[in-house]
Amino acid sequence: MRYQSQRRSFLKYTLAASAALFAIGQTTAFADQAAEDFVQGILDEAEPILDAPTQQELLDGVENLVAQYVDMRRIGRFVLGQYARQMTDAQAEEYFPLFQQYATIIYQNTLSDYEGQRIVVTGSVDRSERDIIVNSKLANPEPGAAFANAVIHWRVYRDRDGNMSVVDAGADNVWLAIEQRSQFTSLIANNGGGAAGIDALIAEIRSRVNED
User: Where is the signal peptide (predicted)?
Assistant: First the structure.
């Protein structure tokens, strides 16, 4: 599997992140049917991809889903935290395409863990009119299988026109974008903050993308 070091890095921080994250439990209440239908539609598209005959077809399929349904621009700004406002236009032009590549790899590696599985929506929680958490789980996991009891979360953003997109994903209250924000802002701060820190982050993301 490509980029195993990134997956190990994510798992390394899981326990620390769990203590800091807001808790969102599984629910069977249909708090937002439209958001649930949106996510289930994505999961239905994902089912044959997760059952693809080759690993490359799986990775390519996930990449297409991410490009279609995940708002990478919004996530890319979120993970910069307070430093998003300090980024120059030149840095933004370089950062956002690199971040999309990097985050897509994370989604590919994460969803590969559910290879051969079907995922179904179990409920949702409206955090606000525009911010919805949709919960899901494996439909028919084998007893004792990895992730058999995992609650898989999808954070959905609804814009003023009612259009929806995924802006984070996670499992058992550990979220990818929140973990990335912690790592990214720490890296920027440790490299002087501001423009210098953002340059260091861009260099780090480029090195991770080029590891393949």
Answer: 1-31
